[in-house]
Amino acid sequence: MVECEEWEWEKQVKAMPRLEKLVLGNCKLKRVPPGLACNARALKCLVLQGVQLVSYLENFPFVVELEVIRIPGLERITNLPSLQKLTIINCSKLKVLDRIPVLERLVLEDYAMEKLPEYMQDIKSRHLQLDCRVWLLAQLAAGQSGTEWDKFSHVEHVNAYAHHRSNRRKWGRLNSSKLKLSDGSDVGEYVIGDAGYPLLPWLLTPYQLEKDLSLSDSKVEFNSRHHGAIVIAQKALARLKDTWKCLQGEGWHPNNQLEMFWTVKTCCLLHNIVIYMEEEHGAGMPSDQEQYTSGQVRQIADEDAVRVRDALSRHMMESGAHTMAAEDAQEVVPVASGSGDENKEQKERRRQGADRGMEKAHDS
Question: pTM above the 0.85 mark?
Answer without folding.
Answer: no
